[in-house]
Specification:
Cathepsin B, Chain A; eight-stranded mixed sheet; two-stranded antiparallel sheet; 10 strands; Peptidase C39-like domain-containing protein
Length: 247
């Protein structure tokens, strides 16, 4: 594989801790040996289980990293907000919260407001192999929130029980890390915290077609995922990005 990041990932402790487990793997890759239990405890969890990529980004920002999110979540963001750099995302998110209901929308909106305030950057850019290569060529892993239901091609599930049910079930989200890309075969190397998992079985890293991964990421919008989260150590002496100018 041409662009590959050498990364190790632990098995997720339970059915809902895929996000902090991926974050822990990224920290370890950068030499930040924070215990997995600590990352799990410090990561904001949703009331119905799991977390959001933006909460992982906030955790990284508070630890002094730089964090960039490429979002494809049209439930939360309007594409026109990214047409020019002078549109204040925070203002648009706050305005949207005034006219739309929904607990998860409000939770995600508040989290993004914090992310922006901490200096995180948010973009909406076409997902392409070139975008992935941009970071993998720099040996930077990409943490992504996507649809586990589509990625694995398995039945939808019932709530926190995780029981497969193609009739009563609903789509499930998941976090994995993209850590390699082969342009010639258009395939991606995935580090998956779920062990065992339907694609790698007993292996936590497996190669899968790029198109399938991109579809899984896009369909993550159903569960307020649909994002790429890039975490990088801040250059020494650099000033943190703050607020709306981070967009």
């Amino acid at each position: 594989m041409e662009h590959r990041v050498s990364l190790e990932i632990a098995p997720q402790p339970d059915a809902t801790t895929c996000g902090p487990t991926c974050l822990h793997a990224v920290y370890r890759y950068f030499g930040d040996e924070l215990p997995l239990a600590t990352v799990v405890d410090e990561t904001h969890a949703l009331t119905d289980g799991g977390t959001l990529g933006v909460f992982l980004g906030c955790h990284a920002l508070r630890r002094g990293y730089r964090a960039t999110i490429y979002t494809y979540d049209l439930q939360l963001f309007d594409p026109t907000w990214f047409a020019t750099e002078d549109i204040p995302l925070a203002d648009r998110l706050q305005a949207q919260m005034q006219v739309k209901e929904g607990r998860k929308l409000r939770t995600a909106s508040r989290a993004f407001l914090e992310f922006l305030e901490l200096g995180g950057a948010v973009y909406m850019e076409d997902m392409t192999g070139a975008l992935l290569r941009r970071y993998l060529k720099r040996k930077t892993p990409i943490l992504t929130g996507l649809s586990a239901t589509y990625l694995y091609g398995e039945p939808r599930e019932c709530g926190q029980s995780g029981k497969a049910d193609d009739i009563r079930g609903v789509p499930q989200g998941h976090f994995v890390i993209l850590c390699g890309y082969a342009p010639e075969s258009r395939s991606v190397l995935v580090a998956d915290p779920l062990h065992p998992n339907p694609l790698g079985l007993q292996q936590q890293q497996y190669t899968i077609d790029l198109d399938r991964v991109m579809c899984a990421i896009m369909l993550g919008t159903v569960t307020y995922d649909a994002n790429l989260l890039v975490i990088e150590p801040a250059p020494r002496g650099s000033k943190p990005r703050h607020g709306q100018d981070a967009h």
